Amino acid sequence: MKKEYIFTQVDGDVAVVTINRPPLNALHSEAYAELYETFYELSKDDRAKVVVLTGHGDKAFVAGADVKEFLTLDGNTGPLYTRRNNSVREYIRRYDKPVICAVNGMAYGGGCALALVCDIRIASERASFSLGEINMGILGATQYMAQIAHFGSACKLVYTGDPIDAAEALRIGIVDEIVSGDRLMERSIELAKKIASKSPLAIRAAKGCMVKAQQSSLEEGLQYEESALKELWGSDDKNEAVKAFLEKRKPVYAGR
């Protein structure tokens, strides 16, 4: 699939996926389709062990949806639009590789939702976040925000649609780290490479466990973790990791 709005660069173990739809990277139907196709293709690429998702430029990660599309939607077509966009976001949330979101500017509406489904969010100092759908008479990302942010803060964002800056986003828990704008990609790739250096089997299992923890009871999560550990205990990667630790060297993982 030839892509017009989503660009990918694989550097060693890390894939950088950039949303590029000037001027503010607003997502419309075609861009969502390209985003899904990009992540699907990367799922088959054994080179890429971690994905960094960002937006082009320094003004916006994704400044929401293309609102012009809203005028064509009603009680019949609107739910189909929502379901399709949610399916892309859920695919990324459940992705079997870690996804780091490098938030380079505005993450509004659908852009905020997209950031929330990533595993880790690193924001530049100029980043800002908003769930402004309430101002369009609709809703968005309520469930993701309620899971990640402090509950009262989540309600405030959903009910008012007001934007918050990176510092406030860090305080309420939807951002994990803030860096200067000129270090955003450097720091994001640095973290991605650190994660990519771990056992591929262990990272895949860890991602599955963290997703499971978001949607199950503690008891169910522990059972899932025990099942994942059964495979890891018997893996060559575990033996290599222990030997490397004892021999004071870097492990060389085979992914089995």
Strand order of the largest sheet: 1-2-3-5-7-10
CATH architecture of the largest domain: Alpha-Beta Complex
For the record, give the distance between the C-alpha atoms at the N and C termini, rounded to a whole number: 32 Å
Compute the number of strand runs.
10
Keywords for this entry:
10 helices; 6-stranded mixed β-sheet; alpha/beta; Lyase 2-enoyl-coa Hydratase, Chain  A, domain 2; 4-stranded mixed β-sheet; 2-enoyl-CoA Hydratase, Chain A, domain 1; 2 domains
Describe it for me?
This protein is of the alpha/beta class and 256 residues long. It folds into two domains: 191 residues, 2-enoyl-CoA Hydratase, Chain A, domain 1 (Alpha-Beta Complex); 47 residues, Lyase 2-enoyl-coa Hydratase, Chain  A, domain 2, CATH 1.10.12. The protein has a six-stranded mixed sheet, sandwiched between helices. A four-stranded mixed sheet has the order 4-6-8-9. It is globular.
Topology:
Blueprint lengths: L5 E6 L2 E6 L9 H15 L6 E6 L4 E4 L13 H17 L5 E5 L2 E3 L1 H7 L3 E5 L3 E3 L11 H7 L2 H10 L3 E2 H7 L4 E3 L4 H13 L3 H15 L3 H16 L2 H11 L10
Parallel strand pairs: 2-3, 3-5, 4-6, 5-7, 6-8, 7-10
Antiparallel strand pairs: 1-2, 8-9
Helix pairs in contact: 1-2, 4-5, 8-9
Question: Could you give a short description of this structure?
Answer:
With 256 residues, the chain is of the alpha/beta class.
